[in-house]
Write a structure and sequence with these properties.
This protein is α+β, with helices and mostly antiparallel strands. It has 5 helices and 8 strands. It has helices at about 1-30, 65-80, 95-100, 140-150, 155-170, and strands at about 30-35, 40-45, 55, 85, 130-135, 175-185, 185-195, 200-205. The protein has a 4-stranded mixed β-sheet with strand order 1-2-3-4, sandwiched between helices. Strands 5-6-7-8 form a 4-stranded antiparallel β-sheet. Helix 4 (about 140-150) runs antiparallel to helix 5. The N and C termini lie far apart (about 40 Å).
Length: about 210
């Protein structure tokens, strides 16, 4: 029983973390946030990538699913942006696929989350010649995006999304998105990012 409760708490915390970040980054960039009892929808009209435009935390009764899908689809199309509709084990309905597909949505991928207590993380020794630097200015951001582009195969729209968010949150020591770049003999070869939200420290942007 205790293990089940812990797992349920973690799932709820991950959903809270993800939703909080989506709202925060959208507000930072003067986007449009709809936060209701039924769902959270975020739209960034200037960011033409799906991960910047989302539906999260769905709590829909059966007779509202079709209307909610239709309304959200219309909003994203009005702004001309691709979008993601996140489905989690806490959302209702848990499988809105039929309604989504009827309005032109398609399955993208299943995204697993991994979690660990910070006090149990084992930190490996870096390889010789590797230096890890915190991104503190636009030059560091360019290196960070270069490493991410190589690791993820990012296109220009995705690079623009990364740079637009960096400009919005800034590079100060209290910035709410912290980035690091790994340099091997001065060449950017790795990236990583940290975002705090919902009581969790989320590790993102990891590429080598």
């Amino acid at each position: 029983m205790r293990a089940d409760a812990s797992a349920a708490d973690l799932v709820e915390a991950i959903e809270r973390h993800q939703t909080e970040l989506s709202i925060r980054w959208t507000e930072f960039q003067d986007g449009v946030v709809a936060d209701t009892d039924e769902l959270v929808r975020t739209v960034n009209p200037d960011i033409k990538v799906a991960f910047a435009n989302n539906v999260h935390r769905t709590r829909l009764v059966a007779d509202r699913v079709g209307d909610a899908v239709r309304e959200s689809t219309a909003v994203f199309r009005e702004h001309g942006v691709p979008a993601l509709w996140w489905v989690s084990s806490l959302g209702t309905p848990q499988d809105p696929a039929r309604e989504l597909e009827a309005h032109g949505w398609r399955f993208d991928e299943t995204m697993p989350w991994m979690a660990a207590r910070i006090d149990r993380v084992r930190w490996p020794e870096p390889p010789p010649g590797l230096m890890i630097e915190r991104v503190a200015d636009e030059r560091g951001q360019a290196r960070f995006v270069h490493a991410m582009s190589a690791g993820f195969g990012m296109r220009s729209a995705e690079r623009h999304a990364m740079n637009a968010l960096a400009s919005a949150v800034g590079y100060g020591p209290d910035a709410q998105w912290v980035r690091w770049v790994g340099l091997l003999d001065g060449r950017a070869v790795a990236s990583s990012g940290l975002m705090l939200g919902g009581g969790l420290a989320g590790v993102y942007n990891v590429a080598t």
